């Protein structure tokens, strides 16, 4: 019972943090709740489909099908996050400053930030598929636990995960509007780094890269990845107690790319 | 469109790689049965990548998880999956089935 709730919570945590941060970053956009719900809904739907296909996917490509799907999802989510950080946020800042200069209220139009919508859907899809598989497995496989108990535990885990997401949203919402963008931008950039690190690990797991795959250090003694804080930091900023060189390079490359890209686009925005 | 061709390029590369590495990396079979791993201890050569073939013979899914190996992979009921591990330094690397942690425990011994 407790383990079921805990496993569902762990799976939910990352997606919930994602949604919380994205919700805070887009606080002032009109129709935000609507497209955010659409993103989550699309993710849940995709998760169910992916869970149904899991058995077939796993057998693909000599047992690597699942990794390939995972790599595809991670790559797409990473591309979307980088695009958002470099292009959309620079563009938004320019619009905001122009609006301020002209003494107008910020008019973002009705365009939903598509990149973030996709990222939210993909985060739900990735974690959701595993949750669906785990819960349905527990429902059919264990004779000694009642379906009601499994579902209650699952719902409890989901609720706890959602509460953490809500918590980070509430925390970020206390930051004054003027500064909230810089904070959420940093958080989104770190999420991108985390995805890049996970991508490097997925590539090693599937055998696509062979070099730089051994752990560089072990900080488990300092902060165990299984601890509450370790789990939280893993979901939030991609903390890994034993990162490989490939993971570290991916993480740093994503951050440097975002930083340099944002810097490069900024002067042209100011010159206009 | 670009995404699609990228994906197919990735698939193609994957197939090429999957084909080429098969002959080189030592293979080991790991079976999941009654929420336990068989064998419990896997001896692998150090300094060399190893191809782990995991066959889940249970009617429930399992997640192979090891922070020490830096691996995490879902194995649906009845499925056979491949997990590449290493190259490892000599030592013991514990792994577990996340969904049945009470019983599903094992260790990779690199020597």
Protein model, in words:
- The complex is a heterodimer of chains A (272) and B (111).
- Chain A is an all-alpha fold.
- Chain A has one domain (2-271).
- Chain A is 79% helix and 0% strand.
- Chain A contains 8 helices and no strands.
- In chain B, β8 (91-97) and β9 (105-110) form a beta hairpin.
- Chains A and B meet through α2, α3, α4 and α6 of A and α1, β4, β6 and β7 of B.
Q: How confident is the prediction overall: mean pLDDT of chain B?
A: 84
Helix content of chain B: 10-25%
Helical fraction of chain A = over 70%
Low-pLDDT residue spans of chain A: none
Largest sheet of chain A: none
Shape of chain A: globular
What Rg of chain A is obtained from the alpha carbons, in whole angstroms? 20 Å
Tell me the Rg of chain B in angstroms.
Answer: 15 Å
**Main sheet summary of chain B:** 5 strands, mixed
Estimate the mean pLDDT confidence of chain A. Answer: 87
Largest interface (C-beta under 8 Å)? A-B, 41 and 45 residues
- Gross CATH architecture of chain B: Sandwich
* Strand proportion of chain B: over 45%
Discrete helix count of chain B: 1
- What is the terminal separation of chain B in angstroms? 47 Å
- Biggest sheet: strand arrangement of chain B: 3-9-8-5-6
Q: Which structural category fits the helices and strands of chain A? A: mainly alpha
Q: Can you count the beta strands of chain A?
A: 0
Work out the count of structural domains of chain B. 1
Structural class of chain B: alpha+beta
* CATH top level class name of chain B: Mainly Beta
